[in-house]
Design brief:
Distance between the termini: 25 Å
Number of domains: 1
Oligomer: single chain
Number of strands: 19
Helix content: 25-40%
Length: 536
C-alpha cells in the first residue's frame, strides 16, 4: 500500500507520539540511557505543553507496560473518579462539558510518578526538561495546533486564565507563532522538586481546588488525597496465532477484543482489504460489540470474560446479516432507536479527544499510553495559577440515573482509553492505540487487522483508510476507500458520510513493532494529526 511516510526503524529504541517535540523528548531520554518508562513520562509531559488540547496534568490515562522478557504486559490505571461533592441532580448537560463543574479527579501526575517509582531510572527533573523549556520559552504552533485551538476556542473564552494562555491577543495562535505557558512551567518545576504530593497534598492542588470551587465546581483536596492509581492484570483474547492484551473495565478494551474474536470466524484475506464484504462485516460487528459495551462495561457484578469466548464470538457473528445493515445503537447509553440491535447475552446457550504514544527500548521494554482531558481543550477551565487545563470527564458519564454509567459521587467513569499490546508465541510483538473517543474502540482493531491479517507494516497499518460507525446506520468513511465499495455499502443500507481523504475523526494512531527474528524495531505515526515517529 502506498503511504505518505516510511515505517521508522531502530536497533536501540523507537518512539511514536502525536507531536514531533514529544517524540524527540522521548528519543533523547533513550539516547541518554533511560528506559521506555522514562521516555514515556518525558513524552507525556511534553505533549501537555505542545498538544495542550488533548492531554496533560489535568487529565487521566492508562499505561500498558511490557518488561523485558515478559510473557504478558501489566496495566496502570490512573483514572480519576467523580468528586465526592458532585450533585448529579443539579447538573445540566452543559455543566458536564464546559467549565469548573466538569472535571473528574485528575490522575496523570500520580500515574506518571507511580510508573517511575516502580520502573524508572531517571529523575523527574531530567524527564520534564523538554516540557519546561517549551512552556517557558514557547512551543512552536503547528497548523494542527492552530486548527484545534481555533475550532474549540469557545471552551476557553469564558475563563480568564485559559483565555489569556491559549488565545493570546484574543484569538487562536497562528501557525509558526510561539505559545508560552509560564504558569505550567512553574508547576512542572514544583513537581520536579516535590513529586506528586505537590498536587495531591500540596500548594498546586490547593490552588487547583481553590480556583475550581470559587468558580462553582466541586473538586476538593479530599478528592485529590483519596485518588488511587492501580496496577492491574490485563484482559486478553486470542486472534489466530496472536494474543491481544488491554486494560480491564472500566476501560472498554473488551469491545474491540470482542470484535476481533468475532472477525476470527471469517476468512478475512479472501475478502480483500476494505472490500464491501469486509467493511460490512466489520461495521456490523462493531454495532454488536458496542451494544455490549454500553450494556455491560460498568456492571461490577458482570464477568466480562464471557464476552471474549470463542462460543460467544461465534454466536454474535451469526447475528450479522451479510447483505443488510442493521440499526445500531449510538455510542453511549440513551442513543437508541426502537429497532436497534440489542446487546448479546454471554453465557446463554443459543436459545473523539485524546492522545496516544508508544516506546520500545533496546532491552525490549515496551510502553504504550492513552491519556486525555476529554473534549478538545477539556472543560476549557484552567486551574488558576497552576497553568493546568482541567478535564471534562463528567461528560463521559450519564445524568440518567438508570444508566450503568450514571454519574455518582466518587464513582469512576466508563472510559475508552484502550492501549493494546500484541504478543505472539508468548513474546512481545507490537503495540497499537489511538485517540478518538468511542472511535478508539473501532480504529484500534482496524489497525490491528491491517497489521496481523493484511500483511501491512506498522506505518501502513496506521495510514490505511478507515471507517467509523457513528450510531444507527451512519458510517463515516475516508474517501481513499474505493468509490464502488462505498456505493455498495450504501446499497446494503449503510448511510455513508464521505469525510475526505483523511480525517482525524477516525483517530490518530501510533504503534510499534519488534521483529521476532532480528529484534529490529519499527514505529508508525498518524499523519491525520501531528504524529511523528523516531528511531535510534
Amino acid at each position: 500500500m502506498a503511504v505518505m511516510r516510511p515505517a521508522i526503524m531502530g536497533r536501540n529504541g523507537v518512539v511514536a507520539s502525536a507531536h514531533p517535540a514529544a517524540s524527540l523528548a522521548g528519543l533523547k531520554v533513550l539516547m541518554n540511557g533511560g528506559n521506555a518508562v522514562d521516555a514515556a513520562v518525558a513524552i507525556a509531559s511534553t505533549l501537555n505543553v505542545a498538544e495542550p488540547y488533548m492531554s496533560g496534568l489535568g487529565g487521566d490515562g492508562v499505561m500498558m507496560i511490557t518488561t523485558p522478557g515478559a510473557d504478558a504486559p501489566i496495566a496502570l490505571d490512573y483514572l480519576g473518579m467523580a468528586p465526592k461533592n458532585v450533585k448529579p441532580g443539579e447538573m445540566t448537560p452543559d455543566d458536564t462539558i464546559n467549565g469548573p463543574k466538569a472535571p473528574l479527579v485528575p490522575g496523570a501526575a500520580k500515574g506518571w510518578f507511580t510508573a517511575l517509582e516502580r520502573f524508572g531510572t531517571k529523575s523527574a527533573g531530567d524527564l520534564f526538561a523538554d516540557a519546561i523549556d517549551l512552556a517557558e520559552n514557547g512551543s512552536p504552533v503547528t497548523h494542527k495546533n492552530s486548527e484545534f485551538i481555533g475550532n474549540n476556542a469557545f471552551r476557553v473564552e469564558p475563563w480568564d486564565f485559559a483565555r489569556q494562555t491559549l488565545l493570546p491577543n484574543g484569538t487562536a495562535p497562528k501557525h509558526h507563532s510561539l505559545l508560552h505557558q509560564p504558569r505550567l512551567a512553574k508547576t512542572y518545576r514544583a513537581l520536579s522538586e516535590d513529586g506528586p504530593d505537590a498536587i495531591y497534598k500540596g500548594s498546586i492542588g490547593e490552588e487547583m481546588c481553590r480556583s475550581i470551587q470559587q468558580a462553582g465546581g466541586f473538586l476538593s483536596m479530599e478528592d485529590l488525597a483519596a485518588l488511587q492509581v492501580n496496577w492491574l492484570d490485563p484482559i486478553s483474547t486470542t486472534f489466530h496465532d496472536y494474543k491481544i492484551f488491554g486494560a480491564p473495565p472500566p476501560t472498554c478494551t473488551f469491545e474491540y477484543l470482542e470484535l476481533l474474536r468475532m472477525m476470527e470466524n471469517e476468512d478475512l484475506p479472501s475478502l480483500g482489504h476494505n472490500s464491501a464484504d469486509y467493511l460490512h462485516l466489520l461495521i456490523e460487528g462493531v454495532k454488536l460489540a458496542s451494544a455490549d459495551r454500553i450494556q455491560y462495561a460498568m456492571r461490577s457484578d458482570f464477568d466480562h470474560s464471557g464476552l471474549l469466548t470463542k462460543d460467544y464470538a461465534k454466536q454474535q457473528f451469526g447475528r450479522i446479516d451479510r447483505q443488510v445493515a442493521a440499526q445500531g445503537m449510538g455510542e453511549r447509553y440513551g442513543e437508541t432507536a426502537p429497532d436497534a440491535l440489542s446487546p448479546g447475552q454471554p453465557g446463554r446457550k443459543n436459545g473523539e479527544h485524546t492522545t496516544h504514544f508508544a516506546v520500545v527500548d533496546a532491552d525490549g521494554m515496551a510502553v504504550n499510553v492513552t491519556q486525555s482531558i476529554g473534549s478538545p481543550l477539556g472543560s476549557g477551565f484552567m486551574a488558576g495559577e497552576t497553568g493546568i487545563l482541567m478535564n471534562n470527564f463528567l461528560d463521559w458519564t450519564d445524568l440518567d440515573p438508570d444508566s450503568p454509567n450514571a454519574m455518582e459521587p466518587g464513582k469512576p467513569m466508563e472510559n475508552c482509553m484502550s492501549p493494546g499490546q500484541i504478543y505472539m508465541d508468548g513474546k512481545f510483538y507490537g503495540t497499537l492505540g489511538t485517540p478518538g473517543s468511542w472511535g478508539i474502540l473501532q480504529t484500534t482493531p482496524q489497525m490491528m487487522l491491517n497489521l496481523l491479517v493484511h500483511g501491512m507494516n506498522i506505518q501502513e497499518a496506521i495510514e490505511a483508510p478507515r471507517v467509523r460507525f457513528m450510531g444507527g446506520k451512519h458510517v463515516l468513511a475516508e474517501e481513499r476507500i474505493d468509490a464502488g465499495v462505498l456505493s455498495e455499502l450504501e446499497r446494503r443500507g449503510h448511510e455513508i458520510e464521505r469525510a475526505g481523504l483523511m480525517t482525524y475523526s477516525v483517530g490518530g494512531g501510533h504503534g510499534t513493532y519488534r521483529d521476532p527474528e532480528t529484534g529490529v524495531m519499527s514505529a508508525g505515526a498518524d499523519p491525520r494529526r501531528d504524529g511523528y515517529a523516531m528511531g535510534w
